[in-house]
Amino acid sequence: MTIYFNNVTKTYKDFSLSIPELHIKTGEVVKLFGKNGAGKTTLLRLIVDLVEVENGIVTIDGMETSKTAAWKKSTACFLDDSFLIKYLEVQEYYKLLYNFYSIPSKSASEVNELAGNFLDMYSLKDKRIENLSTGNQVKVGVLGTLLVEPKLLILDEPIANLDPESRIILISLLKRYKANNDCTIILSSHDLNVTNRITGRSIILDNGAIKYDQYDQKNNLEKIQQHFNNSL
Amino acid sequence: MSWLYIKVLFRNKRAVFQPINIVIFFYIGLFQFVVGAENNLLIQEVLGYSLAIISTGLFFTLHSYRLVSINFDALSVWPISYSSINLSVWLISFYISTLIFLSGFLVLVFLNKSLIFDLLSCYLFTIGVSNVAYLALAIQEEKRYDPSLSAFSTKGSRVSHPFINNAVTLCLGLFVFLVKMLSNWFGGYLFWFLMSSAGVVGLLLNPILLKKVDEFVLQRSYLMKEGFRK
Questions:
Q1: Boundaries of each ABC transporter domain copy (chain A) (predicted)?
Q2: C-alpha triplet A62, B215, A142: angle, nearest 5°
């Protein structure tokens, strides 16, 4: 799915996000970097119409997100743990998601096959989400977005609460999902090393503006690190 | 699947307590309202108005936003098919509570027909004004108000304030009573007019305030991050 930002601005009292133009093509993996408060979450929320655009338009596949809902069917996002229904068991939560997205339910073994070492569905399926650790809750939420087979996947700092091993497994999962589906992935992160394991396009936001936008090359990591070093 | 929706409804404490509150407050409110009006007992009338207002506040907060137990952000992004979720969660609770509400209303009208306009204007007032009051509190508390829960929520975690809900509606009840006392000099017309107009203004203000709350919460997070950065 393609995403297009045209002259988008969003202003708060002491902060302004301004995206004159941003075009994310179908099948791209976009990695959003930036300091705290740089505007990453606002940008993601603008895409899924959780924040109202002040000026300009945001479209998904040509559909203005604030005026249509058809894009929701092919979009999955996990921005924070409020996307979980914590008093449900893991399996029940997934069943609800399948129903929302009108796709057939997957069995625990199918989920395990997809999740690999990321999440042990057999041991967690009957547990309530509220009783899981923070890391496992994030895993449940992130895996839920993959299970509904989206064409556009949006994740806000999905690896922030994960252990080092799970971070790497998640990136592998995303790579595999991307390889099997022509899916657009947008994820924000602070971990340059781990996110560099998936190739795509790196965007650095700084103070509400895009300061770096490059397709990954060999020395991608050094370039991004250089950018952050320069701003110190 | 329907069983799962029922679980969604009943495992959520708020979703369970709201209908119970509606039943308790509505019928107690109506009882006090009728007794108070007939015997001219001021305290009972205050209590009656307050409880009637609380009950309608709870009723409309629950139903005007349709879904009671899922976060508002997630609801906005998930491709929820109304045909499925409404049938199992919303419609069940809506029809049951509507039945309770309407039967209570009819009982009251049967007991005292002259109260019908008083009640109708009270209901309109409650729909419009109580939610505005909650939203204004949310702005002051710098917290996001989650209409689907009728609760305040911060990012990720929900902080519910059931007492604030009831305190707000109780204050509204007292206000209604004061206006009612004043309007006795005008044969009741002033009461109907003021209550109904306040309700309409409140309804118009609701969407504007909802946006303001969202803006306020996000802005605050930026201010905090800026502070840390400095």
A1: 3-232
A2: 60
Question: From CA B89, how far away is CA B101, in angstroms rounded?
Answer: 18
Strand order in the sheet with A16-24: A16-24, A3-11, A55-60, A63-64
Cβ A51–B218 below 8 Å, yes or no? Answer: yes
> What DSSP state is assigned to residue A87?
T
What ranges do the domains of chain A cover? 3-82+150-230
Q: Measured between CB atoms, does A101 come within 8 Å of chain B?
A: yes
pLDDT in tens, B176-193: 667 777 776 666 677 777
Q: Say if strands A29-34 and A201-206 run parallel, antiparallel, or are unpaired.
A: parallel
Residues of A in contact with B226 (CB under 8 A): 14-15, 37
Residues in chain A: 232
Q: Are A83 and B73 in contact (CB under 8 A)?
A: yes
Show the tokens assigned to A155.
């994740």
Cα–Cα distance list, B161 to A83, B14, B105 (Å)? 21, 11, 28
Eight-state DSSP code of residue A35:
-
Our CA-based measurement puts residue B134 at a distance from the nearest CA of chain A, in whole angstroms, of 21
Q: B11, A35: Cβ pair inside 8 Å?
A: no
Inter-chain touch B222–A12, beta carbons under 8 Å: yes
Instruction: Please write the tens of the pLDDT for every residue from A7-25.
Output: 999 887 778 899 999 999 9
Cα atoms in the 13 Å half-sphere on the side-chain side of A126: 2
pLDDT in tens, chain B (230 residues): 567 766 776 666 555 555 565 555 556 556 655 655 555 555 656 666 666 666 665 555 554 443 344 555 676 777 765 445 544 555 555 556 666 666 766 776 676 666 677 767 776 776 667 666 656 655 554 444 444 444 444 333 333 444 455 555 566 666 766 777 777 666 667 777 777 788 788 777 766 766 666 666 666 656 555 555 55
Cα gap A50→B73, rounded to integer Å:
7
The token pair at B58 is 């709870």
CA A211 to chain CA centroid, nearest Å:
20
H/E run at residue A206:
strand A201-206
Q: Which CATH class is domain A3-82+150-230?
A: alpha beta
Tell how far CA B122 is from the center of its chain. 12
Q: Does B7 touch chain A (CB under 8 A)?
A: yes
**Residues comprising chain B, all counted:** 230
- Hey, of A16, A17, A63, A85, which one would you mutate to test binding to chain B, going by the most B CBs within 10 A of its CB? A85
* Cα–Cα distance for residue pair B106/A85, rounded to 1 Å: 38
Residue pair A103/A148 in contact (Cβ under 8 Å)? The answer is yes
